[in-house]
Amino acid sequence: MFELERIFFLLAVAVFAIVHEYCHGWMADRLGDPTARLAGRLTLNPLPHIDPIGTLLLPLLLLALPGNSVLFAYAKPVPVNPYNLRNPKRDGGVVALAGPLSNLLLAMVLGVVVQFAPPSSFTDLLSIAVFANVLLAVFNLVPIPPLDGSKVLFSLLPDRLHNVEVFLQAYGLWLLLPLIFVAGPLLSPILQFVYALLVGAYW
Fold first, then answer.
1. Over the stretch 66-79, which tens digit does the pLDDT of each residue have?
2. E-strand spans in 89-128?
């Protein structure tokens, strides 16, 4: 990936991460929790969603590292109070799922444009945006805290497996770091398959 493409990719990830967080807050508001709305986070204005580390510092460091192929960014998580939700366990999973589904929907819409528009520099940029959304959707569905997939998993676990939730909450971060830096290639075939499917490479 050329330098300009790397920069655009990180910008796309940051922008769509903001959409991702907005959808968490929007869904929570619909299910009875106004916390994000009252905190001013139900907006697509990027300023309230910028995380100094995840949206600014981390992407710049990753770009500056010579030979680095790991590119990622994230927005400030929206506040959600599960006790305000009508059904905290079930609705917590729905709120968590809203973010990755928004990225998957965006990837599908942009993928249709890529498939039917004449090849150009514009569709090349759209292809990068498709992959950015696929990355956000797939990565966030990994069932390890603090990723969204863990909340979806916890909403589905029966009460007798509560110890699994306790363990993952306590050690999730230590499991996640190796996933990002060591086991990341394991996600690559999934990312490539979904991306190719959306832009029509398998059709």
1. 766 667 888 999 99
2. none
Q: Which two tokens stand for residue 125?
A: 């940029």
Strands (E), the chain: none
Cα 61 to Cα 55, 66, 79, 146, 177: the distances in Å are 11, 10, 27, 22, 17
Question: How many domains does one find in the chain?
Answer: 1
- Closest of 81, 62, 84, 82 to residue 73, by C-alpha: 62
Q: State both tokens at 80.
A: 């959600």
Helix (H, G, I), strand (E, B) or coil at 80: coil
CB 174 within 8 A of CB 143: no
- How far is the C-alpha of 24 from the C-alpha of 29, rounded, in Å? 9
Residue-wise pLDDT for 73-98, tens only, equals 889 999 999 999 999 999 999 999 99
* Distance (Å, whole) CA 16 – CA 166: 31
Domain enclosing residue 159, as ranges: 3-199
What's the confidence (pLDDT) of residue 182? 63
